[in-house]
Amino acid sequence: MRRRLAAGNWKMNGLGADLGEVEALAAAHGESGIDILLCPPATLLERMSRISGPIAIGGQDCASKEHGAHTGDISAAMLKDAGASYVILGHSERRADHGESDTDVREKARAAIAAGLCAIVCVGESLEEREAANTLDIIGGQLAGSIPDLVTGENLVVAYEPVWAIGTGKVATLEQIGEVHDFIRARLERRFGAGVGRSVRLLYGGSVKPDNAAAIFSVPNVDGALVGGASLKAADFSPIITALEQA
Ligand code: PGA
């Protein structure tokens, strides 16, 4: 049985004044039977981890190098030291804004796993790629290129986030989500064997909101969500968590 995961990505949002949202979530979901995760900007990691109670904390990126002369970068061990147990890698905004390739993402995931973090590797097609009927080819290539060899169900999560659905209010249909999640599951089983392939959790991301979460969580092979905008406020994220608890 895969333990479901509700993950929030705060992106470049959040100051100390927003930590009350975390306290509210922790109070509301203290007895949760699922995993709950928040990934704040690095500046809030340590402060958030001190008050997050049952909610796990994660980074939004890490360096592939362990340490050294890399101004502005943050290593996986530094994230762990600040209280993180997960890190999001290869988010489409990192791929687009910072030119991260599949190889970059794989090296970062390797470093994250070596440091004892669980890597959430993101994949997803652009609108152009979907309209050209290339979705599964693109996802297959990203999976092959971005995931390192030595993974388990404990140290890898894969997030399917169609680029055209992120922050746009456009959600993939349940059929589209199901098709891609089944494909990702099959590829993981083929590469890593049934045991590992079936134990890796698969998240959907892209405009997940309180009003569409339950339907998305009913799709087979959807083990949770990676939520952007709707994770910033406890009033929005809490009903999404509840929908997953009840799925
Ligand atoms: P969104 O972002 O929920 O705001 O669409 C999702 C993500 O980028 O993880």
Would you write up a description of this structure?
The chain has a single domain (5-246), classed as Alpha-Beta Barrel (TIM Barrel), CATH 3.20.20.70. The chain has ten helices and eight strands. It has helices spanning 20-28, 42-51, 76-81, 92-97, 102-114, 127-131, 135-146, 174-199, 213-217, 234-245, and strands at residues 5-9, 35-39, 56-59, 86-89, 118-123, 156-160, 201-205, 224-227. The chain has an eight-stranded parallel β-barrel, surrounded by five helices. Helix 1 (20-28) runs parallel beside helix 10 (234-245). Residues 9, 161, 166-167, 205-208, 226-230 line the site of 2-phosphoglycolic acid.
Outline of the structure:
With 247 residues, the chain is an alpha/beta fold.
List the helices and strands and how they pair.
Elements: E1 5-9, H1 20-28, E2 35-39, H2 42-51, E3 56-59, H3 76-81, E4 86-89, H4 92-97, H5 102-114, E5 118-123, H6 127-131, H7 135-146, E6 156-160, H8 174-199, E7 201-205, H9 213-217, E8 224-227, H10 234-245
Parallel strand pairs: 1-2, 1-8, 2-3, 3-4, 4-5, 5-6, 6-7, 7-8
Helix pairs in contact: 1-10, 5-7, 7-8
The structure holds 2-phosphoglycolic acid (PGA).
